[in-house]
Design a protein that fits this description.
The protein has a 3-stranded antiparallel sheet with strand order 2-1-3, sandwiched between helices. The chain is globular, with a radius of gyration of 13 Å. The chain starts with 5 loop residues before the first strand and ends in a 29-residue tail after the last helix. With about 120 residues, the protein is of the alpha+beta class. About 30% of the residues are buried.
Length: about 120
């Protein structure tokens, strides 16, 4: 995955702790979370499963989206994740290209909805 502004959500489990972040290098940043190289919240609460992400054309768009999502109620965040990753799979392997499963997801998840933003593990076309 090339360096693209992304907003992402990590979870400790389906009913566990959620973390929302923004980065220009999703692969590097998620790896840092998984290896507990990021001190603070995610390391303290064991939040390392990538359950949702969204690519943006510009970093200012990604930052604005992150800020909006952080103000959302938990139930809305859960609905967002459930809508694009109903099984709450760890999308890490999709991001690094080990065994992408986009073909088993509906076309909206694969980014075929005509929008410029790809969501839930689907790289921009």
């Amino acid at each position: 995955m090339e360096r693209t502004p992304c907003v992402y959500m990590l979870a400790s489990g389906r009913n566990g702790t959620l973390y929302i972040g923004v980065t220009s290098d999703l692969v590097r940043r998620i790896w840092e979370h998984r290896e507990h190289l990021v001190p603070g919240f995610t390391a303290k609460y064991g939040v390392a499963r990538l359950v949702w992400y969204e690519q943006h054309d510009a970093m200012d768009e990604a930052i604005a989206r992150e800020k909006r999502l952080k103000k959302w109620r938990r139930a809305w965040k859960l609905e967002l994740i459930d809508g694009f990753n109903p099984s709450w799979r760890d999308l890490w392997h999709d991001v690094i290209g080990e065994h992408p499963k986009a073909t088993s997801m509906d076309s909206r998840v694969r980014g075929n909805d005509g929008s410029r933003v790809a969501t839930a593990g689907a790289p921009s076309a």
